[in-house]
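Crash report, auto-generated. Payload:
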Amino acid sequence: MSNNAVTTALESLEKQLNRPLATALEACARCGICADSCHYFVADPDTKHIPAFRGEQLRSVYRRTHDFFGKYFPSWVNARDLDEATLDRLAEIAFSECTLCRRCTFNCPLGVDTPLLMRTIRGAATAAGKAPELLVMLADSAIEKGKDPELFKSLFLQQIADMEKQLQTMVGDPSARITVQREGARVLYVALAGGHTILPPAAIFHAAKEDWTLSLFEAANYGVFLGDPARAKQIAARIIEEAKRLKVQEVVVAECGHACAALVWDAPNWFNETFPFPVRSIVELIAEYIEQGRLQLDPSANPEVITYHDSCNLARTSGIYREPRTVLKAVAQNFREMTPHGLENYCCGGGGGLVALPEYDEKRLRAGKPKADQIRATKAQVVAAACENCRLQLGELNAHYNLNVEITALADLVVKSLKFPKGASQPAV
Amino acid sequence: MEFVQIADVLMPIAVIYAIIAFGRRWSTVRQLPLAKDLSAAKGRSSRGVIYAFTQGMAPWAKESTRRHPITYLRGILFHLGIVVGFAALLGSPWIDRADAALRLAGAVIVTAGAACGIIGGILRLTDSHLRTISTADDHLSVWLVSLFLVSVAVGLLWLRFIPVLQIIGAITLIYAPASKIRHFIFFYFGRLFFGIHIGRRGIVQGLESHHE
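Recovered output after restart:
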């Protein structure tokens, strides 16, 4: 069993070796300038939290077979054979000590992609059966759900019917609808589990007079966190096939960093095709509505000091850093930036699937301290974030560090500021 | 056998070996798979690549270099010294024909580079973080290159030292392809992939405007 795991991991590492990975393995000069770009190191300045150190753990295994000194004089370059203990340690590092936020890459003079190394380890660990069980279970249950959607469809439709009534009350229009899998709709909106990512966007779509329909499936993709393109593809396939079948003009993903990055940037490569429709985040669509004057907004509805946490997957991975600000400036009276923000934001500590893994709670909360300090410094009362995992982590940071703030989604702030007709009930979003 | 004779034999061998070894390394990397990105681009890769190799290398472009300007300057001077040092090594058979002022300027640059290399080598030994993340090869590489730069500085000022410069340069060239020194090849790939990432995904505009 042990040998099998090691052999499988080595085969996986070898299979994943391509030009970007070889570059990330070879380019690092170990100058250490990446250290304080990492929120783990800022929170706990231990050498093990330096991105270069993390990368070295994989490099030492790589050098054993791909480097002259590594082959013949291994101690000269710290090369070592992969054994089960090393594999366990690699998995621990990749799944719990790096949130794949890319901050180190953006701060590296050579552009070393340490998150790519960590994703590679995740993939090898998953193949070898060393990934956190909960992530594997969540990914596999999503795949199973996609195999026979009829099993849960009727319950889902019933929930949506109830939600539709809430929407009608919310917008003061009995004709407001939430359709599911309606063929020919312009937009297919892919939400997350729970009404909180359906109802506010539904109100916004209604206000913007959008021709939209709701996906039967959730946008979350735990295959991405596992570094397992095969699982990730199966999870994404439910949505891609649905969008093709319904002949929609675009797919819009809920406020979720990893789901957006996965569907926009990774999925076309998993499927080896360019999709016949664009995929984008709902944040981009809302910003477009605002720029087109399709939403009547009253920023005085959000008078509190509001700050914004950039999801790493939206900002540094997907280039979505202007759009949230377009939205916030339109819906809030007192928007205040964190320092740093945008492309230089600190990860909240919940990325890379960590927020789903209770065994790493202590590490995650410690790594979130720089974000907590940033929030406190803004003196904000409300923290908006366009990512579900970020919001979960920020909620926990709020309690752990006594920040006394409210955590909210962008769509919730938009709905609060929407000018509904008289008779409409202001939603409790 | 005198230094001159050793240098005459060693230099051409080292240069040819380094060209072949680095060329082989370059072609090995080029032969690795590089999947075509089929996602819909939000921007131009070329814009990102240009940024990555120009403005993105400026000291104000990254938080890390803004926080550590001395480290940045040390790195720039060290690598500038290396470029000048290897140019001097390759041109060493004809160095006596070079203008004295040019040789003096070269000596100043490589001396600065050598000083930065030596400081880097000392820091790598004394800073506990750097010491932990370094391999023995990392230590030798920085000291060897620094020694080479010192030899270039001396050789440029005192022409009789040129054979020693050539021998140390040859040793460095022979060691480099198997060592950490080869990271300079991957620097180009690293910045290229980073540039493509920020270009295709429409991130570069934010990086450019952030520092305007």
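Post-recovery validation: The beta strands of chain A are 187-190, 212-214, 250-253, 279-281, 305-309, 334-335, 382-385, 406-408.
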